[in-house]
Design goal:
alpha+beta, four-stranded mixed β-sheet, 3 helices, 8 strands, 31% helix
Length: 144
Amino acid sequence: MNTPFPSSRVAVVEDSIDVGGLLEEVGHPEAGAVALFLGTVRNHSPRREGVTHLEYEVYRTRVCGKITEIVSEAARRWSVIAMAVEHRMGRVEVGEVAVAVAVSSAHRAEAFAAARYLIDELKERAPIWKKEHWEGGAEWSLGS
């Protein structure tokens, strides 16, 4: 199936990401595959142990615009039915979901490829500032 205008939604949210809601949103009777990626906050980073939480700062309109651009690119490259992308802003605790990507398609190859493209390009191109906190300090960096 080659859907000319797949369903899609992009959001930057302050509250927890509703993973079940995302899966429902991309579900479709013609979908034989749903790929879901969850980026969670871990208790360490390549530079240090003991990360306590992250803080994301975004200019919501600009970030949503950039992610929407990436979603449009994915829709042109792969035969997908629906896509949903959510990214948190504000404080996100260790173990919580910071970013979620859900993609449905008729076949798994397209769902996997589109989901991977969405998260990889989002991390590369979306202007999201991240402040990593650990006991005794914190540091800002660009990237989700």
